[in-house]
Amino acid sequence: METKIKAFMDKVAAVNPAQPEFIQAVHEVAETLIPFIEENPKYKDAKILDRIVEPERTMMFRIPWVDDKGEIHVNRGYRIEFNSAIGPYKGGMRFHPSVTLSILKFLGFEQIFKNSLTTLPMGGGKGGSDFNPKGKSDGEIMRFCQSLMNELFRHIGPNTDVPAGDIGVGGREIGFMFGQYKRLRNEFTGVLTGKGREWGGSLARPEATGFGAVYFANNMLKVKGENFNGKTVAVSGFGNVSWGAAQKVSELGGKVITLSGPDGYIYDPEGINTQDKFDFMLELRASNQDIIAPYAERFASATFFPGKRPWEQKVDIALPCATQNELNEDDAKALVANGLIVLAEGANMPCTPEAVAVIQDAKVLFAPGKAANAGGVAVSGLEMSQNSMRYNWTFEEVDAKLQQIMGDIHDTCVKYGTEADGHVDYVKGANIGGFVKVADAMMAQGVV
Predict the structure, then answer these.
(1) Domain boundary residue among 317, 339, 363?
(2) Rounded distance, CA 144 to CA 24, Å?
(3) Residue from 126, 195, 370, 428 carrying the catalytic annotation
(4) pLDDT (tens digit per residue) in 399-427
């Protein structure tokens, strides 16, 4: 089997040079899917895996814009429309200097399986730009977003491709892009999700990814006959995902004791569990300074550790919620040595392959991002439904639907990932569970 996996990956690497993040994502999926495909030759004969790793469409375009001083800048924009077998392309837009074709292809590929797991009719896509919103004025961000949409509008639509937010793209950016799309198309449709509540957005969307990751982790704890009550939790990042996770952990009786940024992490033994602390997380996010140190300046209970990551603290549960490959092999060893029982990825692929191996070898329950952080895109799908109906559900209704979806995703992972000894391999379960629905749809639709 190793020979077949290697042969497949060599072929993928040959046609996708200098795309390490994408290769990493494909390899993680291929390791579990190729043995499954060998046992189900109909997928092998139809070359489903060969087809699914190739995007249906890839757009790259320039984005010229003018800053407040009248100087012209040029950034690069992307939209990867990866797979539409079960619905219109769906996935976020990321604005960050680190954005490359490789990163967006990895995210779009993951999105195929994540969206499939939600049970909602959404295909996989992703997009963004190497534009850095940090330090930019509202006017500069507006002009950039309008320039981007001048190209992107021709490729998207409510039944074709529905972008959303991601790193660097919040309500402000969604608003500017939606306004320009509406102006160009002369129509008001649910073409973007993450919209403002007053003009088509859904309640619970900002909290959804963090809430969903905690709901998923709570289902994992139930497998062990436990729950969040009294558990200590390490969370990385301090944006919307971390904010939602901290709130829900506190609500369920746990205690989040860390947050992190590019500058280091804070340790707050009293817990990030009060409204003033949740509100300050939003202030930090809105400042666009991308640093966590001010938290320790505001709250005397916290200590700031510059240049370090939070995984050295002793915790029961880890929720990496920042960015890809933020938790490495040494971090994983430290967590395991300190008695970790559950790790659920709140971000997309935040654990390196070496870290995942350490966690899984220790039989610590590990949930990949395509399962654990599907709450965000799930509520985006619910926003699409509300837009189609010209209707809005209450916060409680959306949250209840989110809980149900995360429970269903967990059940799918258990169905396909339970091993002979009863241990649940959530990576295997998520990959196979997400694959089967898409693969069956692709086969039904012919070679397209």
Answers:
(1) 363
(2) 31
(3) 126
(4) 999 999 999 999 999 999 999 999 999 99
